[in-house]
Design goal:
The complex is a heterodimer of chains A (about 525) and B (about 120). Chain A is mostly beta strands. Helix content of chain A is about 10%, strand content about 45%. The longest helix of chain A has 11 residues. Chain B has one domain: Elongation Factor Tu (Ef-tu), domain 3 (Beta Barrel), CATH 2.40.30. In chain B, strands 1, 2, 3, 6, 7, 8, 9 and 10 form an 8-stranded antiparallel sheet that branches. In chain B, strands 4-5 form a two-stranded antiparallel ribbon. Chain B is elongated and about 65 Å long. Chain B starts with a strand and ends with a strand. At the A-B interface, strand 1 and strand 21 of A face strand 4 and strand 5 of B.
Chain lengths: ~525, ~120
Amino acid sequence: MVAPKSVAVLDAQLVIDATVVYAQNFDLLAANTPNPDGWSGPTGTVATTTTATGAVARSLPNMLRVRTLDSNAIVASKTFETTPGQHYTLRLWHNHRGGPVGASATFAIAGVSVTDATSEWTEIVLPFVATADSETLTVTAFYTVLDDVTLLLTPPPIPLEVVSAEVALDDSRAPYAEARLTVHTPAEERLEQIDPRDGLRVQLDAELSWVEPAGRTPQARSFDLLLHERRVDHEAGTVELVLESDEALLIDGGNVTTEVDTGAEAHQASLRAIVDYVLAKHGAELEPGTDDADFTLTEAGRDPDALKQAPGVSDWDFLDPLVRAAGLRLFCDEQRAWRLVDPSSYRVPGEVRVSEGTNATRGEDTISLQATRPDGSPVWYTGVVVKYTWTDAAGAQQVAYDAAGTPQKVYLIEINRPYPGPGLASARLAQATGRGRVQELEALADLNATPGMTLVSTLPATPLQTGVVSSTTWYWSAEGDRHDLMAIRSRGLTDTPATAWVLAEGAWQDVAGIAWNQIDQEGE
Amino acid sequence: MATTISDGTDTLTATIMDGYSAIRAGRNVVRRVLNSNVPAISLRPAALRRGRHRLVFESESVAEDAAAMLASAAELTLADTDRPNVGMTFVVPEGGDIRVELDDETRDAWIVEFDFQETD
């Protein structure tokens, strides 16, 4: 057997948000203003605002019309203040309106130009580096209209030199994605830009290819995460960064007013609409899906204040009990896609196989009644009691309980919010199902491994296990030996006979030993 | 025949290169797979050279200048006309020494010995 040989690379860069330097949609200027806001042309040309109508309209009411009076190519221009050396992007919408056959419009600034001849609204994007205190856009055309011009200051991303990194996806916690990066300390002016308070994002690009076995398809995966913590170690000359997926925005942010936010009550018929109402505050929305729940406030057993977000309550603390009471899970993946799913049925297509003799490098198999998760909650329990305490509108203390399960091992959850109705206890109980046995596996890295995929593992002297991937953590390092590896944590493990139908590769008819109609859905 | 060290502004010439040893640390990761005697390899290039240089200078003043240049916070260049492959850009790494010594035999030549880490 030939040793597999792989090459794993992780690139990281700090993305700095663009800022708008100039924006003009010509709408606040009176129609037929000549040379509006510094947009002008040489003698014999006309640059005027014109009322946008019909098919020619882009954003009402006005746009800029640039045309020549004698049908010769003309130049209109606009000068912007710039800072030499800075990176900018000029965006504008343009609609080429005519001239001789083959005529087109050309936009040029700071040595960058784009020519366009389409007679419909087209966005022109001109990225450039300023070389002087001002740069001038020139428009060469016969007759063209412009609208919605923006000049953005777009600093290029700052590359980070990764010393070591671990990136984890975990379906049992929020945030779902978390990365810890150690990078070389950059130069001082760049170090000052790495500030989590600015809401910066870090883009991680992982690539994995194989020299042996030859022909194996290379893998790539990108992570777009929020910078949440930065710690400079001046002695070691490194910076540690903690990055998180977008749940962190909801966990950090909340109702910072003196008024109770009752906006969610308008959406009480649909949990998806309530989630979208909260996500909209962060410029996000749910991916399409069907898992939903009804939170109609007049329903028996539900506190009428259940959809009120009191001042100081974070968006996550407001949403999470609702989502859990409905037995659902809300998460944002590493590509900023928000999903509301039913954890009992949510699966990611694909399979992760961890096997002795091929890719398993370490394995631990634990059955424990006392193990706890990092947040202090037990890993396994048979009964759940949820205690809601809150102060009602009249100022009186209220308590309500929700319970499910049997008393062998009890887990008490205390929550400070109005009672949203029963459901949370049984949802938490369902989470513990199949969690009593946990395998912690380490294997050669596979960038496709994602929580929710089917896990098939074979370890020495252990029956073949099938379950679901609960978390994946990848490791990279420039010097250490924890590199090009991944740790997998499982849940819902079941012993599975090796002849089980669920494990069949190829056609199902090929499975020997058991007729297909003798196998139940669990493959046993 | 000349061995020189330079910080980009000044260049100092040594009489002779009296010693050179360099090692490169391997960095391929050998991952042991459970129940298999065949390891899985993750390929990474080896680290750049690090090791020890020993240069002989004919006067104390040049030797002291060399030691001062080595002690500065700068990337230096070493070149040798006879042994071009020894040439490198380097720094004296943390934990490395710069040692100035009067030659015991001649009581005339000065020896500067230092640790280096190649930089690119």
